[in-house]
Amino acid sequence: MTSTFPNISISTERLVLRPLDEDDVPALAEMMNDEQVAAWTDVPQPFTEAGARRWITGQAPAERAAGRGLDLAVTEFLTQRLVGIVQLTRTDWRIRATELSYIVAPWARGEGYASEAALATARWLFGDQRFERIELRTAADNTASQQVAQKIGCISEGVLRNACIVHVRTEDGGWADLRTDFIVWSLLPEDLEGADEQLADTGGFTSYADWN
């Protein structure tokens, strides 16, 4: 029997992490067309609303059902506006490990939302789901993503040389691939000690299983 993540909602003082919904299509498409998202991820460009709908109604449910991962919308608690996405991928249920990544909308950057969402997800994984390891991979020059990893208590384990492809603008306005290194980070349950102090201004969170 394949192990799968439940449909859940995770709440912090400022955020709600929940399953993606078709109402998220316009905001998701807008967010994924941002220059920084295009540069640091493999999201197709331009990213259309049709692509967002396929992700929400097909790809995300299929990944969860197969036990490979989980996609969560990150929304503001008060406005319900889409702040970003948290993804769990490459999940190994035998060793209770998964890879975590995050994307934040341009308008929401600089507010600590990525750290708050990532930490809440980590607490849920280590607590409710009894996971033992979370892995993050950041491109060598993606300092913003690296700062998030450090802020939630991740430990840098090393470098995967030439293992990452990022994207740069070409003279004609298109995108070209550029090969670089991956920095590998890990987070274990004991690494969360002290993370609360770093994010004390964002408050705690509660999780609710089987959301919707």
Secondary structure layout:
Elements (H helix, E strand, L loop, with lengths): L7 E5 L2 E5 L5 H8 L2 H6 L8 H17 L4 E7 L5 E11 L4 E8 L8 H15 L5 E7 L3 H9 L3 E15 L5 E13 L7 H4 L6 E5 L3
Parallel strand pairs: 5-6
Antiparallel strand pairs: 1-2, 1-9, 2-3, 3-4, 4-5, 6-8, 7-8
Helix pairs in contact: 1-3
From the structure above, extract its key features.
alpha+beta; 6 helices; 28% helix
Tally of separate helices: 6
Helix content: 25-40%
Number of strands: 9
**Distance between termini?**
24 Å
The CATH superfamily of the domain at 10-135 is identified as Gcn5-related N-acetyltransferase (GNAT)
Global Rg: 17 Å
Q: Give the class from helix and strand content and strand pairing.
A: alpha+beta
Major sheet: 9 strands, mixed
Order of helices and strands: EEHHHEEEHEHEEHE
Q: Strand percentage, roughly?
A: 35-45%
- Chain oligomer state: single chain
Domain N-acetyltransferase: 15-172
InterPro entries: Acyl_CoA_acyltransferase, GNAT_dom, Ribosomal_N-acetyltransferase
Organism: Streptomyces murinus
GO molecular function: protein N-terminal-serine acetyltransferase activity; protein-N-terminal-alanine acetyltransferase activity
How would you portray this structure in words?
- By secondary structure, the chain is of the alpha+beta class.
- The protein has a domain at 10-135: 3-Layer(aba) Sandwich (Aminopeptidase), CATH 3.40.630.30.
- The protein is 28% helix and 36% strand.
- It is built from six helices and nine strands, in the order ββαααβββαβαββαβ.
- It has helices at 25-32, 35-40, 49-65, 113-127, 143-151, 195-198; strands spanning 8-12, 15-19, 70-76, 82-92, 97-104, 133-139, 155-169, 175-187, 205-209.
- It has a nine-stranded mixed beta sheet with strand order 7-8-6-5-4-3-2-1-9, sandwiched between helices.
- A hairpin with a 2-residue loop joins β1 (8-12) and β2 (15-19).
- α1 packs across α3.
- The longest helix has 17 residues, at 49-65.
- It is globular and about 50 Å long.
- Keywords: Transferase.
- One of its GO terms (cellular component) is cytoplasm.
